[in-house]
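Quarterly update from the structural biology core.
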Amino acid sequence: MKSYSILSAARKTLVAATAALVVGTSAVSFAAAQPQSYANGPASVADLAEGLLGAVVNISTSQIVKGSEGPGAVPMPQLPEGSPFQDFFNDFFKDKGGNKGGSQKVQSLGSGFVIDANEGIVVTNNHVIADADDIEVNFSDGVTLKAKLIGTDTKTDIAVLKVDPKGHKLTAVKFGDSNKMRIGDWVMAIGNPFGLGGTVTLGIVSARNRDINSGPYDDFIQTDAAINRGNSGGPLFNMNGEVIGINTAIISPSGGSIGIGFSIPAQLAAGVVEQLRQFGETRRGWLGVRIQPVTSDIAESLGMKEPKGALVAGIIKGGPVDNGTIQAGDVITKFDGKDIAETRDLPRVVAESPVGKAVDVVIVRKGKEQTVKVTLGRLEDGEKLASADESKPSDSKGAPVAAASVLGMSIGELNDETRSKFGIAADVSGVVITDVAKDSAASERGIQPGEVITEIAQESVSKPKDVMDRIAALKQQGRKNALLMLASKTGELRFVTIRMD
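Predicted structure, tokenized:
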């Protein structure tokens, strides 16, 4: 109470002083008191929302799950005698854990939106309808229609559904250009949070190009428009009523919105949706390379002024560039006219390119920039090749190993004996690492015995002496790091840099 009275007195003094100032400078005070007008900040989105609500739908799914007992069963919690929750839990758990061989119907809710009113095409998230036995689309006017699954894409978490309007007039929305969205632009989300039905929330674009490690093509729009459970699959609109994102994820310790939501950008989603509509599956471009980031150390080792692009760590056998067009050790800095600033940029721009398209790829090879022409394959076919791109190790015996030690590594000749000892595939060539000293520079980089040094500073090595000579030459050139290409036991390639000081 005492602190409150002191605070009240202070407020009275401040009010009196402010009043005196206003009287003395009425013109200035009036101007300062007027609210500023922002042309792009909507005073109301009622008209916009009214025209869009009909295109946003609720997706309800159901799945029959077989009952079980034992470790997989859901246990009944132990409640105090006479607990008011006893009846509730008895009903809830009567078919769980104690239901031998029975089954139960599991239901879930999400959101979606109509993009083609005539065909009855609805877009949502794949995780909203995954494993569903039955899918229904609920419209804002109370109509419910059964939905057929046209196609899904787990890599971008997108699904396309089809309903038969049966004389029911649908309202559709279209994709906008998400590339034009800037941080600070107003956006509006409409969806089905917590099963409440059509709910409108407003916010801004908080960030762009977010990578939350949910898939290979992460490029999310971040927004502070409230997005909660049940909003998944719903649209994120710009102020022109165009869909510039599909709401798909949130960061929240409580499960509710804390102002950090993520939407799949329309630029990525539109192409996937079109392919699913046409083919029922995706048909992405494929380059046929394994890549890794270009670190500062690697950039220095390659003679690059700054770390950028995607470093090619390996070539997939039978892929589009298995003809030597692109080689391990090349750094891809531009693809089909698009700059590759980071490693994650390359898979996305390649996947967005049509299968069979001939594109220009700018690479840095041994310090020199050049442009090569590549005809893209199909990713879905390439994934089968990549998984089969392995060889079985040889188990034959050979001659004694010539050994040496360098940069905290013990190295030796790669022959039948070492192949058998470490299980190294027959088609892997180079110098085998037989041991790695604890707390050495090599150990810090995660190098393991059984890995094979195939190149140093983009020069191939086949004997321990080659390794020693290359390291000595780099030191004479004043290099601080050595760039090594390492092969795993099965032939997977990666680049590492090791300090030589």
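DSSP finds twelve helices and 27 strands in the chain.
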